[in-house]
Design goal:
The chain has about 425 residues and is α+β, with helices and mostly antiparallel strands. Helices cover about 30% and strands about 20% of the residues. A hairpin with a 2-residue loop joins strand 14 and strand 15.
Length: about 425
């Protein structure tokens, strides 16, 4: 064999060895999660915030970004098109009212029956009064007092706050009625921020599965500066809103791979105007029902990550609507059992010296909450805290001019973790 032949063999062997070398150079990856609150009349100032949100994402510096509450296909496409140069790899999935659940089982492993009647049927609940009649009275009030086109069924509600303040008396028969009346109330409430009054009357009285806002769309999307492979969604139970786990594998320049899960769990409503009307509340119709559903979603998330990632490293991002209390920082706990469940399964991706900050805050003029909570999170699977090099709250500046003041992009602030991966 000629000398250069020996050299080439040695070179090829070295290259092959390096390709499989677990000691390859570490890579730093910045991952963010941000709830943008593009939710129609549910959240104030949407029209003023929409384009600034798209512009801010288009200029953002995170490597991987999980977004929540991008509820319409139009807004997903707006963000995708605006951010395409900065984030060439973007994933989202389109759902509707007929999208099937990938895991519809309840806490006992049973599959609840699907509805067989419309939300607001012509069923009498009093002398010559049907649930559909009560629905129409409630819609009449919002149409006349809180409409973009007052008095016209072609209008939409100006804000959820206006509807709640002006039409309390008209919705009380539904709100405090039987479970069928409460289901009708939920149909109105979930459609009110985005649908015309004509559409609400029609769909709540004729569409059997009209039980989700935004016509069954999910609100999550994943953006990356690096290629995304094996993208898929896993649809889980959710009341009032579609809940889905969006997952993809980020292909990093170092050759490493990072499985990524983008999520938005059910909130826990403790207000009487948000009765639990789903089938996953373990028989509860108040905040305990929302809590039960949220914990079930967390259990399904944990099982799904284990089944799909196994021993592979993964990051779990999203608005989990759950977090611990930090009294020294005036942060109130919310959904603490859910967060403890997740923290037992995963490593919270925060540096040990990070001072907790709220992500849904009373100081934010885009929301009317009285409490400061930290409910937007980043968690690690098969990665320990030695990989975490930085934690920071993001998207928290007042940058949108509205009614003579400056407001943030959303009612949420984002959270960032910088990871060093082998």
């Amino acid at each position: 064999m000629k000398p250069y032949g020996v050299f080439l063999i040695a070179l090829f062997a070295l290259v092959a060895c390096n390709e499989d070398d677990p000691q390859r150079e570490p890579i730093t990856v910045t991952v963010d999660t941000f709830n943008v609150a593009l939710a129609g009349a549910f959240i104030p100032f949407e029209e003023e915030r929409r384009q600034p949100i798209a512009d801010a994402i288009a200029a953002h510096d995170a490597d991987v970004l999980c977004l929540q509450e991008v509820w319409t296909q139009e807004d997903k496409e707006l963000i995708r098109d605006a951010a395409a140069a900065n984030y060439p790899y973007i994933e989202f999935f389109e759902n509707d009212l007929d999208t099937e659940l990938d895991d519809p089982t309840d806490q006992n492993g049973n599959i609840p029956p699907e509805p067989t009647t419309v939300p607001c049927p012509e069923v009498e609940v009093g002398p010559d009064v049907t649930i559909e009649d009560q629905m129409n009275l409630a819609v009449d009030c919002v149409r006349d007092d809180c409409s973009t086109i007052p008095g016209s069924d072609d209008g939409r509600t100006t804000s959820a706050e206006c509807a709640g303040n002006a039409c309390t008396t008209d919705v009380l028969p539904l709100l405090f009625g039987n479970e069928n009346q409460q289901r009708c109330y939920a149909c109105i409430a979930t459609q009110l921020p985005t649908s015309t009054f004509a559409t609400i009357r029609e769909s709540c009285a004729t569409v059997v599965n009209q039980d989700l806002a935004f016509d069954g769309q999910n609100g999550v999307m994943l953006l990356s500066k690096y290629p995304l492979n094996n993208s898929a969604e896993w649809v889980i139970p959710g009341t009032w809103n579609r809940r889905t786990i969006l997952r993809a594998t980020v292909e990093l320049p170092s050759g490493a791979e990072l499985d990524t899960y983008c999520n938005h769990l059910t909130p826990i409503f403790d207000d009487i105007t948000f009765p639990y009307t789903g089938q996953y509340g373990e028989g509860n119709t108040d905040a305990a029902g929302w809590q039960a559903e949220q914990e079930l979603q967390a259990e399904k998330l944990i099982a799904h990550v284990e089944a799909t990632s196994g021993e592979r490293p993964a990051v779990i991002l999203g608005d989990l609507n759950a977090g611990l209390a930090f009294p020294s920082e005036n942060i109130v706990g919310e959904g603490e059992p859910t967060f403890e469940l997740l923290a037992d399964a995963y490593t919270p991706a925060y540096t040990s010296d990070y001072t907790p900050e709220c992500t849904f805050c009373s100081e934010n003029p885009v929301t009317d909450t009285e409490n400061d909570v930290w409910i937007d999170h980043i968690l690690l699977h098969q990665l320990d805290d030695s990989t975490i090099t930085e934690t920071e709250r993001v998207f928290d500046e007042n940058v949108v001019p509205v009614e003579g003041m400056m407001v943030p992009l959303s009612d949420h602030f984002g959270i960032r973790s910088v990871l060093t991966l082998p």
